[in-house]
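FW: tagging you since you asked about this chain on Friday. Here's the raw sequence from the shared folder, copied in full. Didn't touch anything.
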Amino acid sequence: PPGVIDDKGPIRNLPAGYHMSWITQILPYIEETNTYRHIDFKQSAYAQQNAAVRGLRITALVCPSDSSVGRVYLTPSGQEDVRGPNAAPSISAGTSNYAGCHHHLDAPIDKDNTGMFFLNSRIRPRDVTDGLSHTLMVGEKLVDGMDLGWISGTRATLRNTGLVPVEPGPLGPEPVIRSPEEGMAPEQAQPGAPLAAQAPAAKPALPLDPTLRVGAFGSSHPGGFNAVLGDGSLRFISNSINLKTYSQLGHRADGQLIEEPD
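HL: got it, structure written out here
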């Protein structure tokens, strides 16, 4: 399915736009047919008509190891409402610990991305010329206060392999890496720092517009995160994976030789 459906890009992490996610399309295949039937696909992901289903916590989308409860509370502008569910007009959004891979670099979600899920994508097996077993399709992610919920085809359900995988830790900016060649500055070596030593010394990439930031895969599991490759196989991706190899896993057709991670 498309990573996100909308009439224009790039996709901003704001509750504005149609923004139906790839997860909404697969609900009938994960025993959530009734949930699927309650979505009004004629309306946007954030429309009042979809408020009830948007707030639904779906157990299959929540990693048991994550300390989050599978739901966040947001203000109408899409920011986390730290006051919780009793503070009107707080909006409930069920969240997902799983995200599709939209790109091999840290870049906005758009129609020209190189991953398996992106804006209005229609990827078939024959389009994945690097091989389904060499292409990352879905991986774990950590839920944060910018999460718009599983119904939203924003960074809530899409991530890329252009950033070092993250682990739970002190709040702070994620490291920004546009490409393996650009490297990262020492002060950017936050979670997943082992990859920093493998990247060549170079000036750090400039931060993106915050609403265009997508973010990294990551999990509460020590040392890495679980990922599903295009052939359906499950792999544990170590946070110490070679950065170039990791980036290549997010590209469906770069034609480069890739050494499989251990």
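FW: The longest strand covers residues 98-103.
HL: agreed, and Confidence is low (pLDDT under 50) at residues 81-89, 170-207.
FW: great, closing this out.
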